[in-house]
Amino acid sequence: xxxxxxxxxxxxxxxxxxxxxxxxxxxxxxxxxxxxxxxxxxxxxxxxxxxxxxxxxxxxxxxxxxxxxxxxxxxxxxxxxxxxxxxxxxxxxxxxxxxxxxxxxxxxxxxxxxxxxxxxxxxxxxxxxxxxxxxxxxxxxxxxxxxxxxxxxxxxxxxxxxxxxxxxxxxxxxxxxxxxxxxxxxxxxxxxxxxxxxxxxxxxxxxxxxxxxxxxxxxxxxxxxxxxxxxxxxx
Amino acid sequence: xxxxxxxxxxxxxxxxxxxxxxxxxxxxxxxxxxxxxxxxxxxxxxxxxxxxxxxxxxxxxxxxxxxxxxxxxxxxxxxxxxxxxxxxxxxxxxxxxxxxxxxxxxxxxxxxxxxxxxxxxxxxxxxxxxxxxxxxxxxxxxxxxxxxxxxxxxxxxxxxxxxxxxxxxxxxxxxxxxxxxxxxxxxxxxxxxxxxxxxxxx
Lengths: 235, 202
Prior knowledge:
A: mainly alpha; B: 202 residues; 0% strand
């Protein structure tokens, strides 16, 4: 406190104020306040009761979980829809468009004249075969070549790649399979693959031991001849 | 220790909580604070009747908002002073110029007749000092009025005034210095007009 403050304080202290409280006023005010206190208590209780009745307490945690569940459901529905649309319309087209051998696949689809479910089935076969090609699984590809469940054009396509991939071991397996199945048709995928391997390895075609010209060639299933526009020529 | 803390025994801390549910405790709380709030109002307002009215308003506002009040009894006293400051300023705003109120105050003082000649002289001088002090204070801004009266009428320190007026103690001190400077100027002006007994700063 500075000197001036101190002087002023002393000055104020020297003045007598008429500030004695009145007992009458105090008592009257007390009575008034206690009445107001009663009213305030009653209002407070009424508000509490109303709150208890009208507003059901909602726990923040349950509210949070509820919102989380809604968000999760929404995401799942969106994901499923997108997956379905992609699978039905976009997936196939994008698979073909991105495929390294896109033209061959388009020719296969065109040759098989596949639409709807058949097209999906055909694409599934193509994908399986491509996985085998990609993993250079020659033995499995040989199996594909003589499996009637696969479309002829797909098998011819597989044969082209097997011709590029296969070595002497593969050729031996193919020749054994040809012998076992009695395949003689030069357009059979097995024959095509064997010829391609031999051509690539510079091997000669083995002479046929005893061919019965009266015996009809084994066609290895019900497939038809490969269409001209699905010529399994490799680059 | 400030005036607020000095009058607060620790055992009284729970009275606020008791007063929320117990009418008797509430009455005790009122009686404990009535006198000081009334005195504060009486020193700032012209006449006992006005001081009583404003004091009533202060406590009625308090009871209305008592359930929403959070804090100990020290905070409660600060709260009461804050309501009182607001009510006093509100009273002056609603009654127009504060000078009018002091005119009334002077009239009231003049009508009180002393019993003896000495008493008469002393009473006259005291009334003159009081009237002019209140007039000088009334010429300050409401904020400066609050600070000056809380500091010099109630004897609170800058921390306690800061709690009441929601200011930092340093800000209170700064306002206090400026307010005191203004009062000094008012007194100087008056001194030039009527030299003699009014001077306090020399």
